[in-house]
Amino acid sequence: MHIHFRNILLLLIGAMPGAFAQSVTYTTANAHAHNDYEHPIPFYTAYYKNFGSIEADVFSRNGQLYVAHNEKAIDSSRTLTRLYLQPLRDMIRKNNGQPFKNGRPLQLLIDFKTDSIQTMRTLVQQLQQYPDITTNPKVQLVISGSQPVPAQWTEYPAYILFDGKQNLSYTAAQLARVPLCSYDLKGYTQWNGKGVMVKADRQRVQALIDSVHQLHKKIRFWASPDNVNTWITLANMGVDYIGTDNVEGLAAFLDSRPASEYRAVTDTHALYHARYINNDKPSKVKNVILLIGDGMGLAQIYAGYTANRGQLNLLQMLNIGFSKNSASDSYITDSAAGATAMATGQKTNNRYIGVDATGVKHPAIPDLVQRYGMESALISAGDITDATPAAFYGHQPERSMQDAIAADFLNSPVSIMIGGGIAHFDRSVNNRPSPASQLQQKGYTIARSFAALDTIQSRKWLLLDDAAVVPMLQERGAFLTRSLQKTMQTLQQNKKGFFIMAEGAQIDAGGHANNVPYAVTEMLDFDAAIGAAMQFADSNGETLVIVTADHETGGLSLLGGDIRKGEVNGHFSTDDHTSIMVPVFAYGPHSLDFRGVYENTALFDKIMKILADH
Length: 614
Hints:
The protein has two domains: 26-255, TIM Barrel, CATH 3.20.20; 287-613, Alkaline Phosphatase, subunit A. 31% of the residues lie in helices and 21% in strands. Helix 7 links the parallel strand 9 and strand 10 (218-222). Keywords: Hydrolase, Magnesium, Metal-binding, Phosphoprotein, Signal, Zinc. It holds the Pfam family Alk_phosphatase. Zn(2+) binds at residues 294, 508, 512, 550-551. The active site is at residue 335.
């Protein structure tokens, strides 16, 4: 029986795209160094990037195989033996019989540019000198280009394999020697690598890929665009080998994939269905909840929306503005200057906490609202002495002075504080008793385990548990939401109202780590807390909820995704902060006040004006 690829392809045209697409994690094992010999360092550049496939074009002349793109480029020093066979043998010997130390296989694709019979004869003669290669089960030698016709394949050693072609028919025995099928992408689409293929082209290309996979063969395309969007597209369609002339660029891209892709593995987190009680109205504001997503920009928000399959509590809010967040001494702010601007209304230098650019201390919102009889609380899914929460009670010229920042809390009116960082409260400063012991003398309860959250009865307390503020990827659980709910429940007993700042601290960490799953899971956790705040606001109609960020971290771009599946594909431009404006969302009475574009200091001004008027 003969098997013809075109027949299988015709059967699959019109089938559901991706019906047979493989679900794989793409690495450099899926990378193909196209025209590898044209790189400054043939073989080794791709090899040391762990490419799974390397291609060499060869011309047979006078009993030798020369590696070149065309006959004019033939150089007597550039032979297949010198550039590929000898280096590959040396690596196999160095790695105790394997092409790679990690046990990965290696495919050498040899593209014949001259007569198939003569070229094959010369190749077999040369390969006889390299049993390390020909007898190695981890090395695959595949002949492409002007290859012998299938009927002649039995004349050659079994270690010689062949690149499958669509316009040929194969017997079962011949098909067994075809591990790979290569096609000209331009024969199926004129797509230039920008945006997406038109639907008809995509179905045609996907059907071809599926037809090859139905035969349990691998597929690659040549003449494909060579950019990130193409690499992503081909990977999503299940192409086994992604070809490139940009070896280092593709290697960097594939090496970053595990940290750049998020796939939802659980159901979406439940949304609170907003009731918009007193939303937009200039009515009384008794309570203010300021939620800060550290490092959260629009890309992080939309990544969370995609991962949660098209739902976020945050995106139910109707009133939206933008905050400009440069520091006094820098176009790009850090968390210290960004949080200080929101907490005190003062622009300051990076790394300054609760002081202006000249070093003068300024009171923060918790200090100022106590005149109205309001209580305050600070919550962080990180260290409570870190920059963002610290700006709401500390006053130091350097954010790393965390022991001194902890001691500053002794002069703060904040009633409740939850997060990590207990060590800074246990250490003494200037030979005085530790802040923890002094706080206990002032009537604060000090809890050191998150398990104590539901049993705390005091009106003034600190819950500091470093083990509870690990990343969501390490199963932190609902620390932030439960802490916020407990705090709202406690402080609502005060008839004069309250101010709460709660920080989604580790969205920022995910950006610094250039890790999409890290950033996405932290964003989703932050959104769950946002839902709890919205629910509380609707329960009384006197609570203003503000959600913003101190800055964006990572320069995250979203290169692809699937809302239905909860899949996100991202790329970071930096491992630091960026200068872009961050969004401000508001919910409840006076939420209209937060529309527009303004400096981050205006958040302080708006909050204080609203509270002063009511």
